[in-house]
Amino acid sequence: MRKLVEPAAARHETQVLGVELPHESSRHHVEGTAQYVDDVPLAKNALHVACGWAPISAGKILSADLTAVAASEGVVDVCSFSDVPGSNDVSPVFEGDVLFAHQEVAFHGQTVFAVAAESRVLAARAVKLAKFELESYEPRLSAADAIKAGAFVRPTKTFVMGDVDQSLAQAAHRVERAFGIHGQEHFYLEGQVAVATPQEDGGVNLLISSQHPSEVQQLVASTLAVPLHKVAVTVRRMGGAFGGKETQAAPLACIAALFAVRTQRTVKYRMPRRDDMVQTGKRHHFESHYRLGVTADGVIEAADITLAARCGYSADLSEGIVDRAMFHADNAYSLNQARITGYRCHTNTVSSTAFRGFGGPQGMLTIEAAMDDIAADLKLDPLEVRLRNLYRPDHNETPYGQRVTDFRLRRMMTTLSQDADYSARRERILAFNVAQSRFCRGIALTPVKFGISFTATHLNQAGALIHIYSDGSVHLNHGGTEMGQGLLTKVQQVVAAAFGLTPGWIAVSAAETDKVPNTSPTAASSGTDLNAMAALDAVAKLKVRLHEFLEQSGFNDEPKYCDGVVICGEHTWPWPELVQMAYLNRVSLSATGFYKTPDIHFDAETRKGRPFYYYSFGAACSEVIVDRTTGEYRVSRVDICHDVGRSINPALDRGQIEGGFVQGMGWLTTEELIWGEDGVLLSNSPSNYKIPTAADVPDQFSVSLYQEDNPEATVYHSKAVGEPPLMLAISVWCALRDACRRTDGSLPQLDAPATPEAIYWAINSATENAREGK
Amino acid sequence: MQDTESQFWVNGARRSQSGSCDQTLLEYLREVGLTGTKEGCASGDCGACTVLIQADSEGAYKAANACILPVRQLENQGVLTVEGLSELGKLHPVQQAMIDHHGSQCGFCTPGFVMAMAGWLSTDAPLLDDDPAQAGVGGTQVVEVGQESREAISGNLCRCTGYRSILSAMTECMTRPKIELRLPSTVPKNEGHGSKAAKSAAGPQMNQRFFQPSTMSELETILDQFPEATLIAGGTDLMLEVTQKQVQFPRLISLIDVAELQRLELKGDTAVIGAGVTLSHLKQVADNAWPQLGQFLSRLGSPQIRNRGTLGGNLGTASPIGDLLPILLAMDAKVRIGQSSGVERVVALEDYLVDYRQTLLRRGEFIIEVELEGLNDFHRYYKITKRQEDDISAVGVSLRLKLDGYKVIEPRIAVGGVAAKAIRLRHLEAMLEGALLTRQLIAEVRESAKISVEPISDVRASAAYRRDMTANLITRGLEAALGLEQPNVYQVQMHA
Question: Which residue is closest to A27 within chain B, CA to CA?
Fold first, then answer.
């Protein structure tokens, strides 16, 4: 560089933290100019992939004749197990997630082979021409059958606190129930997609929609049997992910990369929606069972809780997911004595995977159903039972040994109950329901306590890279990926504030494995907590260098960065001017940053420790109205109070809360995954799997942020907000069950989701025995 | 093979296309680099591909799913995509409102929402006095949004926002005067689209793959030569064969321009509905003249689907869950069928529906229109779905009857979703015919209804639920006839 550009005027107001800045890409979103992987122009000779499915759920592949496939119009290459130069295993943690089925078929729709053709349509036509000779087994489809057969993808675990059996035996009152909690399809609007471009050194570059670029890099390298440095992965943005692109994107990358290397052409693999719904993992189906011993006042003395997850054919992330279900089976309540058992059941279904909440929602729904049962049995108000059981100063130990401190939830629930006029409305609802008209109503106020940190401790690390260019503009990069949650916006705000600049000075950029290596997935709500702190570490390093330079130049006061200037004692420089001075004096203006979450630990043997850095809290009060004659319902009013610590961007936080709530409501109401007896997924398209529309948004929907500093040293004392709000929707399910309450005050059996049909049977099954199994 | 060209306008620029007869508009747009229009499902369910179609230069902009719209059907029509919405960097007000209200998160569905909202705001949106969204204390935001604005975006799925912010953006725009849309100023003034003059006067060519006749006699000539050709109307069902199963149609005859199929007459007790009438046009007319049908149509598909889908299409596919079939059965529908020879025949709908997706329609035949009666009789149409909006019914029940005092005359009870085809429940009708409508009789009919159908269990509902719903909805309709009607759960919205 010979000549520097004129410094731009940088003096301005720099209030950027806590400000409701729009999403960094919002203008591109509304103009349609935000580029997603499928929008990137490709080389004219690019190839397109389609995969051939196993047509059965369990059995052996005796032979596969792909002659007609290879001969089909436009087909350039065909690959199966034997064509993988490296490893066919694409597991994230353990083993058993395979790229191509080999000999064994583990679930219906499993990929057996792949085709690269001149167009997507030609590829899709070709894969239909495969001829298989198969031997079919009876598929194992339920958690119960897996437990009976002792078939697990990972060993069973138990958390134990105290002597549960004795306390249960002595308890004044016991409640017990078993119920099913169905899974959920992610239905990110942008389906899975990857583009691989071969490089001259035998490596590949990948554009992909993935929450975990580093793992994609690792798995592509192991598929190709090349070192990691031959593979570069870029993620600019995703069209939604919700956990569905944490591990599920990698196989697409591996297959596209395999073809790219073999054909030396750019290869795109974009899954059609139906393939995506059948072939990629979903939220786990759980079978829950609880037995609680309570006092006459409804206070829990002992809890024996069993959570059996249908993990599908492989481990994928089920170890951690069932762990998290177990970690959240207490939700916000002291269980006193507890035994929590988690089964990881093997079934002949697609491997269940991460989905917003990561097992937490299923654990939490279990104990919330139990709260309502206690209240029904003892003829108490369900909210009163919840408040009595909340963690409290002398009862603050979780079944895994972590103490619950900073318990702001009781205040939040009390305030919400008043703001939402809970007690008076509940009285009116009880009176309304006595009339036994065609309609009945229900109400519930439920809390959320969600542990923040990856429970696999080593994942709680992050890296960042910051360049300051000679005009003072800043390039910001970190390992976190943008899936719509506003992560890049928040980190941009944090860095802008640290330099005393407006966000426009800070350019956000795609996550790239050749900029920041060895990153963790953007998951577990940790994106901002980890990446913003790593970015601040890089900022701190750059500031140290600038300060050393100033000291050497004779300015010894501590510099301050605000309003676009740097102030050092009586001297003030516009930011770009200082940067140019530093450049001319040969100061390095690029730095990496690193962060690891402090103070967390967990002993895998004793199953005690502090797995979570802190908890995020929330509470929601939902009211529903139900038609007894059909089971149709509406959510008529929802009031939410959600803990965000000190919010970096209240608008983005509110978006996470509202979006999480509605997504959770879909999970518990209209979204029903249905498999046939042969293990074939029947709910395989948006015409038969129904996520909420705008018409399902509560008629009255109030969301307030509970803003109070996080006492832990998180970035600007904010709190994570990605996953916890999903579980606010448990209030809807509880309110629906409340509406189905019988005249004697007892509650019906109800699985999740509470579809209109499920609600109809919950109301009518006691009086009519016409029900047949599905 | 060479084919004739179709000419149309995209964002004011003239385009022509002579590709395969079943290429979708979405594929075309993305191929020419207009990638703002997204593919979310390729089945018309998610709305990420929403564009606006203007049938003629004076006409209204109608939202459509580009993913299942054959580009060749756009002959002489205008398409507005998200790229054409903002002009010279100046955002359309709804785009700005979406930014201001934080209505996008991942952004993938956003162009589709923006287009659906811009279209609705330019035509049907009511003007609001002031913005009902209130910012309360402590950052609380309370939202109460009207049903019609929710319905306007019921064909657009968003998985991130929970819709509140999108509805707020829309509501803000509704407080402003109607926002007219216009194409970018690149359309030559006297060369606007919508002119049908360009159509070739020559007869059908042997190598021609796509036809869009504008008269019935043209249609008959083409059918005479190509009786094996596939007929396509709105394509909202048929095009899924292309996008989901990679079926290639060798030859398509598009019916959407045939003038004689556009008849729509509601006169007193009778109605004639042309096979080519779109469901949104039908809804618009029915909202005043036939409110029960208008209300029903608001839950049939989405605005995008209703803007393309036709009554003829619902009859042509004859799906057992075709939402309109029970209604048509209850109204004693007769189907007028045309054929290449010019001879017409009229058959009762009940005879027309032969079996699962099978009809009396023979090769070379087409549906002209449907004749209905009994609009002045008491009638009710119901459907049960998992989700309120844009969901195919698990059960549909339609009733119609006359009352002389309490005496029932000519009752009709038709159901869908409980058999291989939509059917009438004649023995229930017989129980009612000539009887006095009492609570006792309704209870008896209800019990008989339960054992009168043999539905199956599938992805939408169990057999037992379908049986109960058939009985309960018939009960609901008969009680309504007795004057005991209550609003449904979607209408009762007050909380305690």
Answer: B99
